[in-house]
Amino acid sequence: MLEMRKVGKIYGKNVVAVDDVKLTLEAGVVGLIGHNGAGKTSLMQMIATLTRPTTGHILFNGTDIVKDPDAIRRRLGYLPQDFGVYPNLSALEFLQYFAALKGVSDPRRPVQVLELVNLHGLAARQAATFSGGMRRRLGIAQALLNDPDILVVDEPTAGLDPEERLRFRHLLSELGMRKLVIVSTHIVSDIEDIAGSLAIMRSGKLVSFGTPDSFIAKARGQIWSATLAPGAYEALGQQVKVLQAKRGAAGVAVRIAHPSVPCGGAVAVEPTLEESLMAQRYAVRELAA
């Protein structure tokens, strides 16, 4: 179990990156959602013991990892957003080096994780010659070397093609059946089919936590579909939040986030997860206005 108690991070004198986060996580896939600058990476770096909280405590199975970082480091796999490779090492040598650093004694493990990320056929190739997507997969492999209880990955599908993204989502889903997997992303489609829970961050604060179904349930009755004349669409766009717009022969087909009927002819529709999160974000802005 991972528990965050009033965790905060301040850079310099007054730059608040993370503000009073309280969260308890069990095994499963957790999607950490937020725009760039929301505090996701700062929170993940504190979980990975790369930086210390300014305030609060982070506990892993009851142990304060700020006081005893080795308690989690032995059981942690971490893939940062920016991941580099050593240019003179092959993919296999790279993983063998990291296995030695992590105290992984099984010589078969580097080959096993290369197979998991579909790089086993390129084991002898220099990592410096890999494409961005291949380097990302190599980064995922090193995070899995020590068979971690907690896997923390920051924007993991950046640079992956659609087939690789599908394979990686399946891998995370399988790992989440017995481990805690925290996935930071601002691309909802990366985690909507695999995450058991979502933590939504905004301006350093944890603003919502729940299951995908709970977010969708809250958005029911707030997502609308309508077909508008071009002039009516332009006028309406100044008044409500238009999530999608597509021009066709009959006019502009739109999907709108609004707490009540936004226009004549609008019909309530079942929200997607992404639309549900957008509806909540829009509602928060309206309340703050």
TrEMBL record:
Residues 2-228 form the ABC transporter domain. InterPro entries: AAA+_ATPase, ABC_transporter-like_ATP-bd, ABC_transporter-like_CS, P-loop_NTPase. GO terms for molecular function: ATP binding; ATP hydrolysis activity. SMART domains: AAA. Keywords: ATP-binding, Cell membrane, Membrane, Nucleotide-binding, Transport. The keyword Transmembrane does not apply. Belongs to the ABC transporter superfamily. This is ABC transporter ATP-binding protein. It comes from Massilia glaciei. The lineage of its organism: Bacteria, Pseudomonadati, Pseudomonadota, Betaproteobacteria, Burkholderiales.
